[in-house]
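Suppose a colleague, Dr. K., hands you the sequence of a protein chain of 378 amino acids and asks what its three-dimensional shape might be. Before reaching for any lab equipment, you can write down a predicted structure in token form. Begin with the sequence itself:
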Amino acid sequence: MSEQITKRKMLVVTTIASTIRAFLLPYIEFFREKGWEIHALSNGVVNCEACNAAFNKVFDVGWRRNPFAIKDTLPLISKIRNIVQANNYDIVHVHTPVASFITRLALSRLKAQRSGFPKVVYTAHGFHFFKCRSFSENWLYLFLEKLAGKWTDALIVINREDEETAKRFHILPDEKIFCFSGIGLDLRYYKKSDQTESGPPNSPYFLSIGELNPGKRHEDIILAFARLSDEISAKLIIVGEGSRKDALHKLIIDEKIETKVSVFPCRQDIRALLENSIALIMASEREGLSRIIMEAQAIGTPVIGTNARGIQELLDGGAGLIYPIGNVDTLMKHIKTISESPEIRSTIVKKASLRIQQYEISRIIKHHEDLYQKILSV
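The predicted structure, expressed as tokens, is then:
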């Protein structure tokens, strides 16, 4: 990359600071080392120690869940516009739905006043319109994406279904749509000292990790274990917090499987849990591109997942066991298969290990570098 490109200035925008902390810090480190000046705009970023250390400057903004709450949104639009005008960014890279829409709305007037300033890149971590959502909800989210697409110079999607959808509905022109393999993993971190398939641990358990919300469909997993309680000895560990916590606890009690299922709000040993589990189960009806599945595959843990966007792409071709969303009977069969067959576990792990290589983070960062250079040269 030329010396001119290495002296660029970028603003990274997310709804909450934890998105930056969990996914984006390796990107910031890379471009800072290249000479870029990078700022962050997010809710809670001022109080995020890792973020303050990573960025040249941070700005806190109190995003609202409803971008159409005019009384709350108008001051945010003005604040964003003032920050961008004052700092003269070359690129504004937006992530997560609320922050992405409001930021692009705020910048639409600037881009109209000064052609090409700044370049706006939007990473869609899974569109909010998908096959399990109602027609009216899908129509609204699609309308918003198409509207904001008019103020966007490049759209990054992280799974093939979203790429096809973006092109089919002309959210942006095809040449401005780019499909990258997720946000990437540092595969060196997840490498086991012993890469052989060792089978389930002495106290076997299956694992499910994710926010306890309706879309994650933890109920399906609990029901599968309730029906299998007399057929397998393995337990189920669920890790997550969210609005469905009380309902899930009630379901576990109603199904009389309190001794078989444990729910933890958080754990500090996620990697160890993954490494020692029989398999990870993902029952979601949608994902962008599941990070926890990628971590399981990198570690060498088999995965059972739905045919949802962002899951099937990681598991097809034998890299995992796939079942239709909400089909508890097929999920039960897959749980039994994984429990009883070391050979199938081994085959899945080997195929997943090959699949996960394309998600190495250094490759994904290079795609971003090439994209930035491309749009800045126009």
